[in-house]
Amino acid sequence: MRRAGSPRLRLRLDDALRRSSRGVGELLATVAVLGEYATPQRCAALVPTAGADLAAARRDAVAAGLLVDDAAPRLRHPLVGSAALAVLDPQERRRLRLDAAALLAEADEPSAAADVLHDVAGTLPDDMVGVLCDAAERSLRQDAPDTAARHLQRALLAHPTAARRAEVLARLAVVERGLHPGRARLRAVQAVPLLQGLRERAAALCDAGALGLHLDPAPSVALLRRTAAEVAGVEDPDDELRDLGLRLQARVHQLDGLQAAGVARNVARLRELTRGGEPPLGTAGERERMAVLVHSAAVAGALPAAQVAELARRILDADPTATAHVHTPTAAVIPCLCMSDATSGLPAVLTTASATAGIAPVTAAVLQAEYAAVLVCGNRPDEGGELSRTAYRELAARAPGTALAATLLVPLFTAVHDPDLARRVVADTDALPEVPDDVVAGTAMLRAQVAVADGLPADALRLSLEAGREFDRIGWIDAPQPWRSWAIELRRRVGDVGGARELSARELALARAWGAPARLGRALRTAGELDSGTAAVALLREAVEVLRQSSDRAEGRRAALALRRRTAGPVPVPPEDACGPSRLAGRPADRRHGLTPREYRTAELAAGGRTNPEIATALGTSVRGVEKHLTRIYRKLGVAGRPALGRMWEEGSDLHR
């Protein structure tokens, strides 16, 4: 039997079983179906030749070396079971498996029963569909969502009754939202026509999740809007239906938040809800609605950062769940807090959520993306960048052919300077059949990042302005990605100082209205560098003061360095190692802006004040070779000469923040 993989021995085994008594064959087939759950009592209940004949069959099987002589029946080799089942005709195999599943279910072993049912081809009785559903619930309690989904998928293939099918689809939607979000909502859409009550239809659509909702096909979105309108039309709904209606409204607001008119409506609705004082946040529906409306206000620049942060904090504090926010519109509060430069406390919250046992893969990846954003905002770009790459790989694998990974992570990748990653994400996005407008704009910024690395500042400027126009078109006047900061510096690089000043004035006005320290400090520092005289010094002093309130210590250092160059007196400059574990964003050693290793070393020496002859001696080359290197370096980095190179090396660059 240890060599039973041989085809000849397999044929001999089949022949031996056909010549054995019927009782031996039935016993071996029963043990094969029950597996580790086989007991003498269960075998006796399932084998037609029970009693003394069964005992004799067991002795014969042990004597023939087919069964192990233990208290519980065990096959000598799995091939024995395969051969014993092959002897039975198809109807006998089906009957045996259905009877075994029923027996195991009665013994409160639904998972074992479900495993048996996976081997039954075709339709299943309705009570066996119920067994699969029970097994799925047991798997969820045991933190095994993949197994739960497998059981429910088998239940669908059993061709259950309409009522049972609706139940299975609704359950599967909840399970799959952490595995395949788009597929989960498709299950809910399939369930809705089969559900009789409005309450049940609304709950199915809400429970399927809202992650990547704007990526759903038009018929699914239309069904969501119709159901939301239907619930809103109910007179005097009870508390449960009212909250389901609010949750559906939150999803409609979420969809509208990618259109300028929708953003404006969302902002108007937010002002209505907050006009009377304390915003309503007592129920899940109220929190989900408020989160989406606050996000629209943030990207539109309709409220100051302090107010956005306060509302976002209240929503987060009122939500008792640790991980469920990922699949609801409440998730919008995380980017709101990042934009507001108000992420204190979030790392602990997200770390706790990520440590939840049995967390589904997509849920875990979204939590990683959120944590990465918080790390980057907290001046830990190296850690945040690595975590974001892991999240992107998982989401791209779990939702292939969709823009889910790009939707969640493109805004973050614009703050993580990695041209190679930018190239990959741009290529992945270009291959998609459909891309949301916000991702189109964000991807344009990644293209600009690549152009900078390739030494093409004019192309980078064009792409940054293209991103800005797209953000403005959808009403995201204060988009999370700093396209204006990029465009300002690029205009300086290409010699358009007047255009840089004009855009800088616009950015400074918006940053003052928004009020987040990181953004305002950056806008003040940029305006100060473009200005001259006492006005420039005043702007830079204000930048340094404002940035003391921000976690962006690297920007604080840059502002202090700029102020030191403009004043005769001493200006305290934070040491570089106080700006976080990563190097300043303008010159990370592992991302060299398209420079060769020799060019990078030449640039480093030149930026440090070494003369061309000194560089030639250090590198073992000629002065003429150094000059050629510097010409290529200036072109690739888009800088006008050695002073600009020194500034870039000392401060970093807005293009990489």
Short description:
The chain has 657 residues and is mainly α. The protein is built from 34 helices and two strands. It folds into four domains: 7-192, no CATH class; 343-464; 482-582, Tetratricopeptide repeat domain (Serine Threonine Protein Phosphatase 5, Tetratricopeptide repeat); 587-657, Winged helix-like DNA-binding domain superfamily/Winged helix DNA-binding domain (Arc Repressor Mutant, subunit A).
Structure report:
With 657 residues, the chain is an all-alpha fold. Helices cover 68% and strands 1% of the residues. The chain has 34 helices and two strands. The protein has a two-stranded antiparallel ribbon. Strand 1 and strand 2 form a beta hairpin. The longest helix has 18 residues, at 239-256.
